[in-house]
Amino acid sequence: MVNTPGTPIAAITPTAPADLRRTARRDRAVRAAVEQGVLGAEAPIAALLDVDGIRESAAALRAAFDGVVAPGTPVLHAFAVKACPLVPVVRLLRDCGIGAEVASAGEAAVAGAAGVAVGQTVLDAPAKTVAELREALALGVAVNVDNTQELARLDALVPAADRRSPLGVRVNPQVGGGAIEALSTATATSKFGVALRDEGARAWLVEAYARRPWLTRLHVHSGSQGMPLALIARGVAEVYGLAEEINERAGRRQVDTLDIGGGLPVNFASDATAPTYEQYARVLAETVPGLFDGRYGLVTEFGRSLLAKHGTVLARVEYAKRAGGRAVALTHAGVQVAARTVYAPGAWPLRIAAYDAKGRPKSGPEVVQDVAGPACFAGDLLAEGRTMPLLEQGDYAAALDTGAYYFAHHYAYNSLPRPGIYGFTTNADPGSDPGSGTEGVRFAVVRTPQTVAEIVAESGAEHAAGITELTAG
């Protein structure tokens, strides 16, 4: 039984057969995780990634754009590594033909360790250092410049480089924000990119390209969670129009590639995938038809939409109690794996699925209850006042749709350990029957559980006497 928070429009989207198969795989994997000891009394929290589902999402992305671009158009789909900075995940996507969009030296190193080719890597960040720029240029990584001062740095660096890197400027089209202000990247005052509608900005951009023939790309990222597709497409249209203006001024096709970012919203209210990549590609084709006529190469930077629906956090109910007449399930999953939900539950509600002690979906009378985490503050709740089958001691609570921006982004409150993360495949698809057996379910480690010794080491243990000795003199 899955508890669904709220009823946004996406919640009424019909659940496609592929979504039903994903749900069935998840149920089989949870049961297998308990049976195989991935989860249990000694391992009370674990995160699962549906490998087959990730492959399906990557294939759907590629097919959606292949269906609208002119034959022969160069297209790079680059995974936004920030969404799930785990080397095995980035490597899996690389094997699915997906590159990497990185926003720090750390993310670049993750992409490199995953074997992503430099020619399939894009560097976006609002505060790149000279050293980061120099390394990217030396390697041939594509770079999107964020602001006028960064472009001045490139003026000094590019002549000394071999110019293998495709270079462009990120533009903020200032078309408006989505439902979550903190994630909106195309508002009037967003910190990202050159604000296109500010006084003199458009003319400055056209002149900047005219003076720098090595600027051959334009970048926009107007999408975000809670952003309607039509508004995302308007942001892309603004930058397409700018590219046309730059090329007309240059008298040639100087801008040859448009990086349209990512930010496709995810439906967190049901198992249905909505919107789909196919729907988004159609909206783009209707709004910006020239985008796909073959004159411009394309880059996309999707993250959440590739991974979110394929991740699950599983936590054992350590204790079940009551407070103020309400049932409370105390679990091992809270702020350390779901910081966004705990600190901003209104913007980031999660569905919770109830499983029994053997990992089987729970049924029975529904009870209003809280699903709480292990951290020592009152607000550490995965869900509050949810109606679902009663979670009892030894059962498992599953936080669904957590494959992006959740368990891969550990928050070490109370020195809680990072959970183990495991990819799974089911080999044979038994359909949507949750009672199907677990034969053929296999797990592979993505990230090992953190040990107490590692927590102590990371807390500065090797420097234990440092400040004591400093103050003793």
3D architecture notes:
This protein is an alpha/beta fold and 473 residues long. It is built from 13 helices and 19 strands. The strands form 2 sheets. Strands 1, 2, 12, 13, 14, 15, 16, 17, 18 and 19 form a 10-stranded mixed β-sheet that branches. The protein has an 8-stranded parallel barrel with strand order 3-4-5-6-7-9-10-11, surrounded by 6 helices. Helix 3 links the parallel strand 3 and strand 4. Helix 2 runs parallel beside helix 9. The longest helix is centred in the middle third of the chain and has 22 residues. The termini are far apart. About 1% of the residues have low confidence.
Main features:
single chain, 473 residues, alpha/beta, 13 helices, globular
Write a brief caption for the model.
With 473 residues, the protein is of the alpha/beta class. It has helices at residues 17-35, 51-66, 87-95, 105-113, 130-139, 148-157, 201-211, 229-250, 277-287, 304-307, 339-343, 452-458, 466-472; strands at 2-3, 45-50, 75-80, 99-102, 121-123, 142-145, 167-172, 194-195, 215-219, 257-259, 297-300, 311-323, 326-331, 352-355, 366-372, 381-389, 396-400, 420-425, 442-447.
